[in-house]
Amino acid sequence: MLDYQKLAELLFPHVTALPEDMEAAFPKRELPEGAKVTRFAPSPTGFVHFGGLFPTTVAERLAHQSGGVLYLRIEDTDAKREVPGAAEGLIKTLATYGIEFDEGAVIGEDGCICDKGIYGPYKQSLRANIYQTYAKQLVREGKAYPCFTTEEELEELHSIDKKAEIKNTDWQAEAEARRAEMLARRQITMEEVEENLAKGNPFVLRILADGDPEKKIKFTDLVKGNMEIPENDEDFVLLKSDGIPTYHFAHAVDDHLMGTTHVIRGEEWLPSLAKHLQLFRYLGFKTPKYMHIAQIMRLDENGNKKKLSKRDMGANMDDYTRLGYCPEAVCEYVMTLLNSNYEEWRMQNPDKSYKDFPFNIKKMSSSGCLFDFNKLNDVSKNVISTMSADDVTDKVTSWALKFDEDFGKLLASDREFAKQIFAIGRGGKKPRKDLATWADAKSYMGFFYDEIFALEDSYDEKYDRADIKATLEGFLKSFDVSDDSNVWFDKIKAVGEALGYTPNMKEYKADPTAFKGNIADISMFIRVAVTGKLNSPDMYSVMQILGRDRVVARIENMINSL
Asked: Is residue 92 within 8 Å of 107, Cβ to Cβ?
């Protein structure tokens, strides 16, 4: 029989603090009734995944619409996987997408990560003494024990566990044998502990699991509802041989001390839930409410649903910046995925921020969401259509200077000219929706700039070239840039009518054979000559912005080419 008090002192002689000291150092938060405390707790191992923005948005909405707190905790206990600069990058990326943390890890004036708030350090690698205080207490209570297994043996066991997943009987048998060996290590004696410590052998600390996998734990998930999961009987590792905790142990201690009320995470953590519930029980902590969000899916080339992996376009949040999506549109799209009634609310509240929407956990899907670029584009067009010409001009120019420098310089060389272009059809009840991304701007309005003007479209062979030429020549004879839009269009109708193209669409539809064509054909002849495109913004506005000289020059060039 182990003397657990003595064992605790042998394993952690340097730890003098007690759990009650930690409780005093991290007092309970004083918050309004019903206020939620949520967190985003990423590992700094690379870019921010779209799947990370998803639960973080939920956490942000739950905290801030309840008058609570959202904080950022960096879970950097796996030094081997940490990517330099990743933590700073994710903080900046999340800020771009409207995720503002009330406390936690922030970037200071010197560009380095520092703490904001009294519950830090907010980097787990700096909290080893806190975890070891609770680890020592678990040993005192006979709920954890040392295992002097070498790192090589642990890696081998991990390898066997992975191979057992292929359901190979031999591997499973070997895994069971090794697990039996590990269970035998529970019987370690005090003499063996002292001998290993005297030799300087490292140890990992394992939980002494009391679960029975034949029994079930009843649990209510805020998204998935009532569940039953098997109890945990695995003596999983709490502290690694370097004294740094595993995710399981660290998150339980931190969520308790930092006052987390709601944990929002992906459903891939469900298999670990029994371990976490056991940990909270062992530590005497109140368990936070859990929400396990279904994985985000995409359709593959065969129409089958697949998990949105980190290699897929749209998984990396940096993709959206490079492709020219405005953050507001991405945030809006995320809200359409999170709550089934969001789009109805948006229609009724077109001028409000998405943060004014009353987010509701009950409106979340338990079966997952389908990522769809087409839907994102539709949402983005709506968002951009509500922006002012000033805003769009600045945002497109800023994006282009970084990702399409020559185009960006053209826009920046005459901001007022660019603003006039973006103002076409903007405002009113039915604004134009030409742009889904800032990258679309070049193809949309590039024809305004002689430097990149090109004939992208040509006239259909069915049209008489003589009629096209006569239309263009007739237009030039009557063109006066000072005309208002009504006079300007009347002149175009007169040119067409003289050539046998009716301005009356009802007459044309009643008997198309009675005319060479209609006013739409005449307008198209002029549009292609001036813009090089079959589709463009309002032609009267286009000509007003281009000015007489450039309109005339382009039409004369087209006449000469026919």
From this structure: yes
